[in-house]
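Two proteins were folded this term; both appear here.
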Amino acid sequence: MTFRTFQFLSSSHKQKPDTSRKKMFNSLASSSTRTSAAPLLCCFSKPSISFPRKFFLCPSKNLKPSSLFTSMSWLGKLGFGARSPSEPSVDPHSAAIAQGPDDDIPAPGQQFAQFGAGCFWGVELAFQRVPGVTKTEVGYSQGFLHNPTYNDICSGTTNHSEVVRVQYDPKECDYETLLEAFWARHDPTTLNRQGNDVGTQYRSGIYFYTPEQEKVARESLEEHQKKLNRKIVTEILPAKKFYRAEEYHQQYLAKGGRFGFQQSAEKGCNDPIRCYG
């Protein structure tokens, strides 16, 4: 489209003040060519504005400029609303693996538990401090993509949750104790959000390995709900394949994070947990 075409449309629109914008939209939409729709974008948008990738909170790695205004949904990227038809389709083979059970085996005499409660850095440190917990790992689970990366889960299209997998000795720490640490660490009434962290990867979830864990988790949720005046949105689902997160995420706060401010992981420590990037 040339500048002359743009000028013509603009002037003709001014010459007919009685023509409603709705009629103009309908007329342009009925055209069979893409070129006729282009002047509409020029007339009502700001041509001088560009949209760099960093402008978006969690940009998709596969986002194409041509689909920026038609498929980009802020609510979708933040974890709300329906999936856009233009988003990457789920590969059945990849999804079958990712949705399979966690087939890792805990150390002899130990058991696994899995929790999602927002950014996994602070959640992991909280569980590191629980007596009887022998190992913690942060990772991704409950999604549809095999071997996801941190960038993948931040795209908002894989349905993964940031989780902490806890290995514990049931002789020293019962499952109820882990659940108390879980409830105390986050707000279970906010959907897909913890504080300033927004997205489906930050949802609240308890992922059980045994029927006994499921029973205790549901009873614990019911008891905890009685203490709150807002509805708990925590999901309780079977534990699925666990993908260990990148090494720099592991024990992030205990190691000091980016600024080197180490926070204690000593058993029984009650120091406030400061979660920083």
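Next, the second protein.
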Amino acid sequence: MKTPNILVLIIVLFYINASTEWPTHTVCKEDNLEIYYKSCDPQQDFAFSIDHCSDITTHTFNVRAAIVLRHSIKELYVKVDLIVNGKTVFTYSETLCKPGLSKLIFCGKKKGEHLYYEGPVTLGIKEIPQGDYTISAKLTNEDHVTVACADFTVKNYLDYNYYQ
């Protein structure tokens, strides 16, 4: 009698593990701007929010982000892809942490630590491109292991002449 129960439990656990997908989170949704994200790391989701959708047009806005580290960060690399109609049209990569270079306050954090950032972010661009597209961002450590990964869906129909 115990063997069938264990078999059912194993099947349920494999089914749950194989079918789990992280939900799509809403970052902001206003008349002409919608931003959503979904973790592309199959093992971990994270939290991300901005204060006001309309603040994005000011180029500096407040964000909140939180994650529990599954891997330590001695070195940290970011790769960002801009994807339009399923094709990557732009790629950006940068080293954020390495010995002697720490661009972020959480460089050197250990596995299991909670990362939380609340504060201003400046995009460094004049306008958010208009249209529907995806921004895929992936953070990896020195072992090429994913620290965090997200696909952001942007639907931007803002009239920038109005904001200037």
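The longest strand covers residues 87-98. DSSP finds two helices and ten strands in the chain. These notes refer to the second protein only.
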